[in-house]
Structures are given as C-alpha cells and as structure tokens.
TrEMBL record:
Domain Lon N-terminal: 13-205
Keywords: Hydrolase, Protease
GO molecular function, one term: peptidase activity
InterPro entries noted in UniProt: Lon_prtase_N, Lon_prtase_N_sf, PUA-like_sf
Keyword RNA-binding (UniProt): no
Species of provenance: Salipiger pallidus
GO BP term (any one): proteolysis
Listed name of the protein: ATP-dependent protease
Amino acid sequence: MVMSRRFDLPGLIPVFPLPGALLLPRSRLPLHIFEPRYLAMLEDALKTETRIIGMIQPDPLSGSDKGLHRIGCAGRVTQFSETEDGRYMVTLTGLSRYRIESEVESFSPYRRCNVSWAGFECDLDGAESDDLFDRDRFMAMLDRFFATKDLSADWSTLKDADDELLINSLSMLLEFDPEDKQALLEAPSLQTRRETLMTLMEYAMRGGGGSEDRIQ
C-alpha cells in the first residue's frame, strides 16, 4: 500500500466512469452529481477518511458496454455543496493515478474496483517539472490554437500559471476525444504530456479535430 502525505490509499475504491472527463494529480475537477447511484457513491465516500472517488473512462474497444480503461485517477472530495433539489456540486482534487486489477461484484448501486497504485508513486511526490519546456513557443502555439478555434481565455492567468498547472489544466479543459484524453492521462511524465498536448493541438489546427470549450 502506498502512503500519501496524510493517509493510506485504499485498495478498494468507488469508480465513476465518465467519458471525456480527465482528472490529473494536484488538479481540480468540478463535478455535477445528480444520478441516484452517484449520489449514493458520494455519500459513502464522504463517510470515509480518504473521501476518495476514482475517475475512469469507459473503454469503447473492450467489447462490452461496461468495459473500462485500466488506468484512471483518484481524487479526494475537497469541496461540495448541495442544491435545493438534492443535487451536489463537487470538486475533486487529484491524488494519484491507479490501475484497475478487478471489479468487485456487490449490491452497491455504483461500481467499485480493486486497484493498484504501484508505478504511480511520482504522483504523490509534489509538482512535476519539464526541463525542456519552451514556454514562449508553447504559448505562441496556444495563441494560434485559440484563434483557429475561436476560443477565449484569461491570458494573464495562463501566463502566470506554473508549468504543471498550465499543462494539466489545458489537458483537462480542452475538448479532445476520449482516447486522446486517456493518452494525456497515461503520459509517464509532464514532458510527455506536454508533447502529446502540442501534437493534439497541431492536429486540431490542421482540421483533424478540435475543441469547443471556452476557457474563462
């Protein structure tokens, strides 16, 4: 079992399959929870010390409509508020990626999996760096990408963000295909994620895909 700074990461976690949703370590993902099974998942997670929910993407190539990718990212519920009609607005803060070992069959309305945290120890070691990051070149490409896709952005916030926050936030916010999101998640380093992100933006600018998100 891998030790985080404040608690042990459990071997059995609830998982939230959501295509296109990407959570990365030390990043924050807002969620709007309203389905009864996921309301039950949230209520149960809040009763635990870790408050962990594992984000995971469905795998369309698995041959099953319930198939999941093997790698996801777990987050801790760090903020939540309830609306008058019983829905929840939740913020997950990314802790660590994990690998699914098996799914647990139970009477629970939501899915739970046995997971391994091995191989992702770096996720708990603090912010990553990218020694080869050419920030000026990257920001110039980002400017062209936003112009091509008619996107708006708070440029002062982007320019002030540290390298990891910039790369991970864009990886999460920009609307790429789910399989591209999975590639960004599984990138073994911040440098690889940045290179993948740049490749995806270049491909989108050439007409191979795009993003319709607006970053405010």
